[in-house]
Structures are given as C-alpha cells and as structure tokens.
Design a protein that fits this description.
- The protein is mainly α.
- The protein has 6 helices and no strands.
- The longest helix has 70 residues, at 87-156.
Length: 192
C-alpha cells in the first residue's frame, strides 16, 4: 500500500526546538521527523546551530580597543570629508535641488492652478455680488429720497421756487435729526 506523500512543514522545526508546539502537534511532528529524512537533517542542523550560538554567547565577550578609540574615530570622521568640501560637489547638489524643485512644481502646479482658479472665480463672483447689492441699495435709497421729497413738496407747499427749496431744507433737516437721534439712542443703549 503506497504511503501518501506528506508536505513538510519546515516552519514547525523552530517552534519544535523552542518548545512552542502543542502536545498533538509535537507528537505528530516527532512521528514525521522519524519518517522524513529532509526534516530530520534540518532539525539536526538547527539544533547544532543553536548549540554553537549558545556556546559563542555564553563566554565573556572581550574586544580589545585602544584607550583613545573614541577620539581616533572622531578625528578620522572629521578629517574624511572628501566629497563635501569640493566646489563641484556643492554645484552638483544645487543642480539636483533645482531639478527636484522644478519637478515638484511641475507635478503639483497643474492641480494647484486648477484649484486656485476655481477659488479665485468664486471669490470674484462673491465680490461682484456684494458690489451689485451695495450699488442697488444706494440707488434705491436715492430714488426713495427723491420720491419722498416730491410728495412732500407738492402736497405741503405751493409751486413757488422758494417754497420748494424751503421744503427740501426741512426734509433734509428732519432726516439729519432723525439719524442723530437714532445713533444717540443706540450709543446710550450700548453703554447701559
């Protein structure tokens, strides 16, 4: 009877060595290692590696460095500035920065310009609407003032030129007095 081919689970070898497998998985893995030569050799290789690693790390780790090691390293690092001090290196770095800046400007420019134009158009439309509203308000106020003056002058006074001028002066004074009283009333109301 042919034995069904079993797929090797090599990731379980490390878990087996570390003792992380459950009891069922552990017994199944041990049975598999007995039958599978490649898993058996991999298990032995990993166990040998772990033993060598433990023995290497178990002993004292002494590395002889000179007493002025830090000073020597810092002096060599400060004096080894070959590519930084050359003028050609600065020029090349400047060209790279300009190239990157232009690329970023080109890539972002189209999107930003479209958004800026849309926002600018919206601001212009709003400003024009406010201007039209103010002009219409001034026009309507002037028209209303003219109608009020005509009605008052025709009903109260005769058609002489002097009476029309005096009626106009009376209306202007009345409007000025009314504005003064309203503003004074608002000021005293705010002070309280």
């Amino acid at each position: 009877m042919p034995v069904p081919e079993q797929i090797c689970a090599t990731e379980k070898i490390a878990a087996f060595i570390d003792g992380e497998l459950a009891v069922k998985e552990r017994t199944a893995f041990e049975a598999h290692v007995v039958e599978c030569e490649s898993c058996n050799s991999e298990l032995l290789a990993q166990r040998q590696f772990m033993c060598e690693l433990d023995s290497a790390l178990a002993g004292p780790f002494d590395l002889d460095v000179p007493h002025n090691f830090a000073r020597v390293v810092s002096v060599r690092a400060e004096s080894d500035m070959r590519g930084v001090r050359a003028a050609a290196e600065h020029k090349r770095a400047f060209y790279y920065c300009v190239l990157l800046g232009l690329s970023a400007f080109a890539l972002l420019g189209v999107t930003a310009s479209q958004a800026l134009l849309v926002r600018g158009e919206l601001v212009a439309v709003k400003a024009i609407s406010i201007g039209e509203l103010l002009l219409k308000a001034v026009y309507d106020a002037a028209l209303s003032f003219t109608v009020v003056v005509r009605v008052l002058s025709s009903g109260l006074f005769s058609d002489t030129g002097f009476s029309k001028v005096s009626a106009l002066i009376v209306v202007v004074c009345a409007i000025g007095l009314l504005s003064f009283l309203i503003s004074r009333y608002h000021r005293t109301g705010l002070a309280k």
